[in-house]
Amino acid sequence: MTAPEAKIEQTDEGMVVTSPGWFVVNMADSVWTQDDRGGEWSTFGEPEGEFEQYGIGIHVLRPGQVNGLYHSESVQEDFLVLSGECLLLVEEEERQLKAWDFMHFAPGTRHICIGAGDGPCAILMVGARGEGKKLTTR
User: Could you tell me how far CA 52 lies from the centroid of its own chain?
Assistant: First the structure.
């Protein structure tokens, strides 16, 4: 059985995947969401619910911006700093991170990333999905 190639459409915001299947999207052409407090992020133009087993995206933080709320999830997550610097707050401890630092969060690990350094920090974020996934903020 051959897997189909997904359809990709150009929108005013960028490229969006509109059907199931495999695809290639250049992140510069993908849809990005922006927020003054939370930076910029993209989820690879995935169609709603397409990635059933995991979520994946790139988050860019400028100094002082956060990637969300201090939280834990009931499933595991992994982050890889692609460029720049950030401060990781994990289980009430601070860790300075730089390009190529890898973070693994077992289920229930409280964490948040905060942009640091002199410029933007790009982080590849991957998290498990599935029934019963819960997010807890504190």
Answer: 15
